[in-house]
């Protein structure tokens, strides 16, 4: 095998151009991850504008319209630019390595999936400089408000089309890779859980993204071609948009969490040195969550005035999601139970994920209770809920994954002390940032407002301080990665002594081409079998 | 790992504080109990579910942190190798299911009660506009707009903020206590959401459709809320104030409103001098138009056109009257024909044609507006 | 190297994707500029479109050459098949969004506006003169719209078109049998017939659109009935066009002797796509024209 790797190393083109034309899953994974980091910073900077304006009541720094642009763009950039590409980047790097494939199933299309993104986001971000400014109708783009956007409107729609196309091709690639490129020794029920969660996520993407593409196309025709999908005067209904949007939107939030579940299910057994408690039930739980995610969408719309039966149905179905998610939480806890744990940085992220995601999930269950949601809806309680699941959930999951696999990617260990500092700063500040938002929401502060009544001042200040701290902590992360690449200690092939899986059977850094021949699986090399 | 433990104890402590029933009136960490039977039911529901969630959290995190403390390699723990247990898995599927059923039952009851808008004692139609609320008492032919009353100086930090900063209006919604009030919610432009926390609910106001909800307010008082659905630039600046009065006081108020509306009507029949019109127009402008066209008529570049030197406000009068009366489809410029009286329209148009350096000298009489309608 | 037959084919660097990104971006930015009324929009669109054509021809050309040179093995074939299946599934979901809009309007929003169910107050206070009906010709607020005179009938051209598409499904299957049995003539005749039927369908559809615009005054801007009618049939027509182009490429490749009875993924993919377009039409015919 070494020979063929050597032979292939010659193909590696040099210079910057390499990154533009590459078909190598590792290169493309790196591109995705770097792009995601850049977008995380851009979206984060926008959130800093939000937190700065909200530091005090009164209008200090922004025009209300610009504030709304920041809120809208912050969410679009974070969701479509940071979290989703980061997970696709992880998939690109890890899935072929974990299933013993030479590359992704469609390497050229893989390149295209990535290279659509910089174009899509250039288009989206350029709207900030357009007459009338960037979109300001919220990331949910409800008509008729969004139809009043200035010249930015078609750019918003088309950039979403491009992102959708990118995700769609990425998802098809991943799903086909998993279904068709596994080493013959690996049946579905022996795949690593990260691969399983991505298989399900890819399915969700393929089912949900075209619906988003469809509904934003309807917005476009309503604005420019006189159609009346969302106009009651012509027989349509603005609420119709919300139904179709959330049919995409709810699966979308699971698209952003399922791969993180996979990451946590990989990290915890490694550092507990104990097999995952229930492999099969984890798989079934993932599938149930995916199924349920398609029948709960209207829990975002309890206040639009749906018929009673619909409100009851969506309340019950939403509550059901707590069951498979609980199965996952309990599985992680029982994996830790009577393990032999150590607490390297990836494990710290994973443990904090379990706690903080659960807090976010529990507030989700509160939101699912329809009558109570009549009070919570569109307040900072919702903002707190989704940042707990998205930031201390998805983003923490991504950080955990990066620390876990960085030595495999770069061949160098990161600095454990710095990693821990990054972790502790992030945990402390993110809770300072988001926990008080629960209070604000319950006390009656609506979301998407640039100015607020004076009784909300104190907690907003705490939250803003947490926000600045959390933002600055991320600079440590950049330094950790940079330091690892430049000055890190050399990493062995099996970086973590408790780790199982094929990725640890190749040297660190992983050679440019791996698994030209399907590998044979030795005993104990798979997650489902134990160490 | 003391750090993690500290954080979690900290968090749980905060959570407990939050749940503590001792809350002050204005400085609250928790949901309001509100002033209607439904809002209290919702509050109780909220508390039950909050406590269940806290209990689940304490349990799960407790087990996990026990394990984190005890089953660590530095304590000499050796990894057990057990996994898979159908029995345990069934338990931890079943128990949460039962908990969920326990939550769903009271939730369903409350929801069914909330949706019953039949047999109201009075009906109020609420219509959202960018960015103000319009109230119409269907049983009494009384109607008016309700706008933010906080001075711009406070918003722009030039003077100290008042007690009800951003939660005060020029004309509150007055309602009787101890009556079933049915609200019909609609919108003139984009989606808004009418929310008074003390009534226990919010409901979206959707253009082209009417949503229904109801409230039974137990005690007289002033209850404040806000628009809760993003509706554009001044979404944060369209508050709601409900003043609940005992039945007889409420009746008196209705009567006085009727008288006021009639005398308003009579004013439109008179001839007005330019100075009078401009003075009145300035007031109207600062209430109704300033949110978009800005003080000094300078507008917001590329979003709201300036009226200072605008071709419409300095050009032919018909075009000016037309856009103010009928608005412009598909833009934020709404039709003011139904919002302002002939007098007020004449006044604001006269003002716009003679202020901000627009020196047309034009003088528009209410009768001209009446003719143009 | 990687072209050894028992190994998965991993292609080398490729310029096509970046070209595709540039082309698509130019196309969209051009379109956006057209919509906002800025200049050089249409030029940019044409340039973007040309780049896309170049990219597609080049990319598929490369794939065809690789396939003909025997670089692909069965596993690659399976990947392609899976890929196509999931792509078609995504298309199903795309159409699903528009069908959802149709059903929402027919079953919920129009009846509500007419006062049914929870729409009682809506009708009473906002649209007292509105009568709910489907096809919706009398609108809640006719003043904003170019109201249609009559609905599109199901009998006549739409029914004929149904027949045409169904027969084309038969001919493409017949061509497939020919291919599998090594009967080249049957393959080519079958394909040619399918394409001809597809083009006939498109021609009739175009004729029907003219009828709709001129005689019935039915267009995308004549209320939700016209909106759903045009969007659904329009997107379907677009897909028929794409399918027909795919089949033409296949026909060209068949004439060049490309396929073997065992390895003909491209043919299968096009045929699946054609069947998908066919099924969409059947649903469309039922709910847009007929019921
Ligand atoms: C990663 C993203 C993510 C995830 C995973 C979730 C998970 C959940 N969400 Fe969340 N949600 C969002 C992202 C996410 N959400 C976003 C972005 C919004 C706002 C969008 C916008 O308006 O802009 C939102 C809004 C939102 C609303 C609408 C609020 C409103 O606008 O009024 C609701 C209402 O039901 C809801 C519910 C839930 C539920 C029930 C879950 C469940 O999946 C949670 C399940 C987890 C647990 C319950 C914890 C673990 C379980 C146990 C320990 C078992 C025992 C527990 C019980 C028996 C209760 N979410
Ligand atoms: C994955 C998604 C994601 C992520 C990661 C985040 C991350 C953050 N979010 Fe966001 N957010 C959303 C998704 C997300 N958010 C969504 C969907 C909405 C709803 C939008 C809508 O209503 O339409 C929202 C809305 C939202 C609001 C409500 C706005 C409103 O209603 O008006 C707020 C307010 O506090 C907020 C804050 C933050 C903060 C402080 C972070 C922080 O975690 C960010 C931290 C990162 C950085 C700061 C960048 C890195 C560091 C630097 C660049 C160094 C420089 C730093 C300093 C100068 C301090 N977000
Ligand atoms: Cu009106 Cu927000
Ligand atoms: Cu949801």
What would you call the shape of chain B?
elongated
> What is the assigned CATH homologous superfamily of the largest domain in chain B?
Cupredoxins -  blue copper proteins
Unreliable stretches of chain A: 1-10
What is the arithmetic mean of pLDDT of chain A?
Answer: 92
Bin the helical content of chain A.
55-70%
- Total strands of chain A: the figure is 0
The CATH architecture name of the largest domain in chain B reads Sandwich
CATH topology title of the largest domain in chain B: Immunoglobulin-like
Q: What profile does the largest beta sheet of chain B have? A: 5 strands, mixed
Averaged pLDDT of chain B: 86
Number of separate structural domains of chain B:
3
> Main sheet of chain A, how many strands, which sense, barrel?
none
Catalogue the ligands: heme-A, dinuclear copper ion, copper (II) ion
CATH class of the largest domain in chain B: Mainly Beta
Give me the number of helical elements of chain B.
10
Using CB atoms under 8 Å apart, which protein chain pair has the greatest interface? A-B, 104 and 107 residues
Could you tell me the number of beta strands of chain B?
10
Overall radius of gyration of chain A? 23 Å
How large is the share of residues in beta strands of chain B?
15-25%
* Widest beta sheet: strand line-up of chain B: 3-2-1-5-8
Structural notes for this entry:
The complex is a heterotrimer of chains A (531), B (373) and C (291). Chain A has 531 residues and is mainly alpha-helical. Helices cover 67% and strands 0% of the residues of chain A. Chain A has a domain at 24-186. Chain A has helices at residues 2-9, 17-21, 25-53, 64-99, 107-126, 152-180, 193-224, 238-255, 258-272, 279-293, 308-320, 322-336, 345-368, 370-376, 380-410, 416-443, 457-487. In chain A, helix 15 packs antiparallel against helix 16 (416-443). The radius of gyration of chain A is 23 Å and the shape is globular. By secondary structure, chain B is of the alpha+beta class. In chain B, the strands form two sheets. Chain B has a five-stranded mixed beta sheet with strand order 3-2-1-5-8. In chain B, strands 4-10-9-6-7 form a five-stranded mixed beta sheet. Chain B starts with a helix and ends with a helix. The model of chain B is unreliable at 1-11 and 15-25 (pLDDT under 50). Chain C has 291 residues and is mainly alpha-helical. Chain C has two domains: 1-72; 74-290, Cytochrome c oxidase, subunit III, four-helix bundle (Four Helix Bundle (Hemerythrin (Met), subunit A)), CATH 1.20.120.80. Chain C is globular and about 70 Å long. At the A-B interface, helix 4, helix 10, helix 11, helix 12 and helix 13 of A face helix 1, helix 2, helix 3, strand 7 and strand 9 of B. The structure holds heme-A (2 copies), dinuclear copper ion and copper (II) ion (CU). Copper (II) ion binds at residues 250, 253, 299-300 of chain A.
């Amino acid at each position: 095998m070494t020979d063929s790797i050597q032979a292939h190393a010659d193909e590696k083109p040099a210079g910057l151009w390499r990154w533009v034309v590459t078909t190598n899953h590792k290169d493309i994974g790196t591109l995705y991850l770097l792009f995601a980091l850049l977008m995380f910073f851009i979206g984060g900077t926008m959130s800093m504008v939000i937190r700065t304006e909200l530091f005090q009541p009164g209008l200090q720094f922004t025009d209300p319209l610009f504030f709304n642009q920041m809120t809208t763009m912050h969410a679009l950039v974070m969701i479509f630019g940071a979290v989703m590409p980061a997970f696709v980047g992880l998939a690109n790097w890890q899935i072929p390595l974990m299933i013993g494939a030479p590359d992704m199933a469609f390497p050229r299309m893989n390149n295209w999936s990535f290279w659509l993104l910089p174009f899509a986001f250039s288009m989206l971000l350029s709207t900030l400089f357009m007459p009338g400014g960037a979109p300001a109708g919220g990331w949910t783009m409800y008509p008729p408000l969004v139809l009043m956007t200035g010249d930015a409107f078609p750019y918003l729609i088309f950039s979403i089309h491009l992102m959708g196309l990118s995700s769609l091709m990425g998802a098809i690639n991943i799903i086909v890779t998993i279904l068709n490129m596994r080493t013959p020794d690996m049946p579905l029920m022996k795949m690593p859980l990260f691969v399983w969660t991505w298989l399900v996520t890819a399915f969700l993407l393929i089912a949900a993204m075209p619906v988003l593409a469809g509904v934003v196309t309807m917005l476009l025709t309503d604005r420019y071609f006189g159609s009346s999908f969302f106009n009651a005067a012509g027989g349509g209904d603005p609420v119709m948009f919300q139904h179709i949007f959330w049919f995409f939107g709810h699966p979308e939030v699971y698209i952003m969490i399922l791969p993180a579940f996979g990451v946590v299910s990989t990290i915890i057994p490694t550092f507990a040195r104990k097999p995952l408690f229930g492999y099969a039930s984890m798989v079934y739980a993932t599938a149930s969550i995916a199924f349920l995610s398609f029948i709960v969408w209207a829990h975002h719309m309890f206040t639009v005035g749906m018929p009673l039966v619909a409100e009851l149905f969506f309340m019950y179905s939403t509550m059901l999601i707590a069951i498979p998610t609980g199965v996952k939480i309990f599985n992680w806890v029982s994996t830790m139970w009577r393990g032999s744990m150590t607490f390297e940085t990836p494990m710290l992220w994973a443990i904090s994920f379990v706690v903080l995601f659960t807090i976010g999930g529990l507030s989700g269950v509160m939101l699912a209770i329809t009558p109570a949601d009549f009070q919570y809806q569109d307040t900072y309680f919702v903002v707190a809920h989704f940042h707990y699941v998205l930031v201390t959930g998805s983003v923490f999951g991504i950080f955990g994954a990066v620390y876990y696999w960085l030595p495999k990617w770069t061949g160098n260990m990161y600095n454990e002390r710095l990693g821990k500092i990054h972790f502790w700063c992030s945990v402390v500040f993110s809770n300072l940032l988001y926990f008080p938002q629960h209070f604000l929401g319950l006390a009656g502060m609506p979301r998407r407002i640039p100015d607020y009544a004076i009784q909300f001042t104190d907690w907003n200040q705490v939250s803003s301080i947490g926000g600045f701290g959390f933002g600055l902590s991320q600079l440590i992360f950049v330094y950790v990665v940079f330091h690892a690449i430049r000055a890190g200690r050399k990493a062995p092939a099996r970086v973590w002594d408790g780790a199982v899986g094929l990725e640890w059977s190749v040297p660190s850094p992983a050679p440019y081409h791996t698994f030209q021949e399907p590998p044979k699986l030795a005993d104990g090399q798979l997650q489902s079998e134990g160490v | 790992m003391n750090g993690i433990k500290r954080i979690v104890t900290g968090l749980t402590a905060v959570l407990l504080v939050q749940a503590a029933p001792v809350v002050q009136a204005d400085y609250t960490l928790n949901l309001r109990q509100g002033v209607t039977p439904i809002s209290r039911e919702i509050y109780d529901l909220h508390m039950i579910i909050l406590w269940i969630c806290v209990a689940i959290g304490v349990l799960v995190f407790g087990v996990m942190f026990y394990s984190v403390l005890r089953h660590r390699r530095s304590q000499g723990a050796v990894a057990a190798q057990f996994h898979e247990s159908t029995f345990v898995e069934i338990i931890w599927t079943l128990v949460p299911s039962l908990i969920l059923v326990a939550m769903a039952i009271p939730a369903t009851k409350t929801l069914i009660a909330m949706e019953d808008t039949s047999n109201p004692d009075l009906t109020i139609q609420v219509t959202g506009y960018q960015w103000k609320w319009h109230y119409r008492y269907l049983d009494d032919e009384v109607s008016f707009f309700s706008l933010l009353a906080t001075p711009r100086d406070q918003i722009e930090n030039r003077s100290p903020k008042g007690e009800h900063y951003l939660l005060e209006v020029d004309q509150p919604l007055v309602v009787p206590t101890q009556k079933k009030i049915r609200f019909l919610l609609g919108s003139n432009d984009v989606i808004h959401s009418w929310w008074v926390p003390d009534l226990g609910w919010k409901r979206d106001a959707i253009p082209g459709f009417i949503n229904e909800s109801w409230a039974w307010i137990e005690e007289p008082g002033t209850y404040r809320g806000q628009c809760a659905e993003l509706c554009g630039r001044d979404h944060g600046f369209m508050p709601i104030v409900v003043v609940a009065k005992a039945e007889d006081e409420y009746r008196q108020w209705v009567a006085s409103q009727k008288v006021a509306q009639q005398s308003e009507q009579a004013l439109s029949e008179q001839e007005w001098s330019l100075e009078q019109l401009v003075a009145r127009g300035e007031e109207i402008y600062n209430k109704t138009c300033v949110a978009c066209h800005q003080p000094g008529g300078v507008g917001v570049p590329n979003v709201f056109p300036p009226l200072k030197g605008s071709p419409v406000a300095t050009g032919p009068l018909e075009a000016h009257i037309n856009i103010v009366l009928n608005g412009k489809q598909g833009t934020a410029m709404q039709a003011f024909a139904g919002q302002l009286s002939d007098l007020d329209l004449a006044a604001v148009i006269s003002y716009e044609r003679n202020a901000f350096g627009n020196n047309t000298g034009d003088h528009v009489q209410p009768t001209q507006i009446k003719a143009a309608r | 190297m990687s072209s050894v037959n028992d190994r998965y084919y991993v292609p080398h660097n490729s310029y096509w994707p970046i070209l595709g990104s540039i082309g698509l971006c130019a196309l969209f930015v051009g379109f956006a500029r057209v919509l906002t009324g800025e200049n050089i929009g249409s030029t940019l669109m044409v340039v973007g479109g040309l780049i896309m054509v170049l990219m597609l021809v080049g990319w598929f050309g490369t794939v065809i050459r690789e396939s003909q040179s025997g670089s692909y093995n069965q596993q690659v074939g399976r990947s392609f098949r899976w890929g196509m299946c999931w792509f078609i599934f995504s298309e199903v979901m795309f159409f699903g969004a528009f069908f959802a809009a149709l059903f929402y309007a027919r079953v919920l929003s129009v009846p509500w506006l007419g006062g049914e169910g929870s729409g009682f107050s809506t009708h009473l206070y906002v649209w007292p003169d509105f009568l709910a009906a489907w096809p919706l010709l009398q609108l809640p607020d006719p003043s904003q719209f170019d109201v249609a005179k009559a609905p599109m009938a199901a009998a006549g051209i739409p029914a004929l078109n149904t027949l045409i598409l169904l027969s084309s499904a038969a001919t493409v299957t017949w061509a497939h049998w020919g291919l599998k049995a090594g009967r080249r003539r049957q393959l080519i005749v079958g394909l040619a017939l399918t394409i001809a039927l597809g083009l006939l369908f498109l021609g009739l559809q175009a004729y029907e659109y003219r009828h709709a615009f001129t005689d019935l005054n039915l267009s995308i801007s004549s209320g939700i009935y016209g909106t759903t009618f045009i969007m659904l049939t329009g997107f379907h027509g677009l897909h028929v066009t794409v399918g027909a182009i795919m089949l033409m490429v296949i026909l060209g490749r068949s004439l060049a002797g490309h396929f073997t009875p065992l390895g003909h993924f491209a043919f299968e993919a096009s045929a699946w796509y054609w069947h998908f377009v066919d099924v969409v039409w059947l649903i469309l015919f039922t709910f847009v024209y007929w019921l």
